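haha ok so turns out i had the wrong file open the whole time. this is the CORRECT one, sorry everyone. sequence first:
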Amino acid sequence: MGIIRLLLSIVCYIPINKALKKSAKLKIKAKRIIAVALLFVLFLGFGLLPVEDLFVTFSTPQSAYRYQRSYTYDVDLVVEGESTVLVVGSHCFGRADNEFVLSAFEKKEGGYKLGFTFEFKPVNLGQLDNKYIYHVYKHTASDDYYIHVMSSFAVKTDVADISGKPFSCIQKDDRYYYYGYAHRMEEGYSLIIDGKEYSIDITEV
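then structure:
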């Protein structure tokens, strides 16, 4: 949860909690249960609503990502879309799963907005020749798609879409991860990996 949402939750909680304490109809145990439940609901509600978008525009996708991830993640890669941008990051202090965390942000005049996290969702995943694993993501408030390809080989290879546009690559340990963008992705979309064409299923699962 962002700092602004946390502060708003606390600000909303304080007067309601005071009113609960003054209530003579409720027992102390009931007041405590209601107070905890209320705090949970406020955290959950503000956690889902990007209230920052009402008055904050981030100057870079990196600053939006770090804020969204409570400044505990570093940015490894930025992939530009038409209406959005994909940010790929990893935990600052390292984690056992060693996984990348993806977020997409909306492009607006003067910068970037957080948007709703549920607008960026996985569409499909699959395997290619038992060599590569791919994931397809879509930003549902736009026509922007993002593709992630992971190789099972500890050797860097060439990954591009059918038009020849190369994917960006991140190396972590002995693995290579590839990320690319597609606008209005349709059936028949293909990737070229190491010179071979692969058809990508975009049917939503």
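Residues 28-48 form the longest helix (21 residues).
again sry for the mixup
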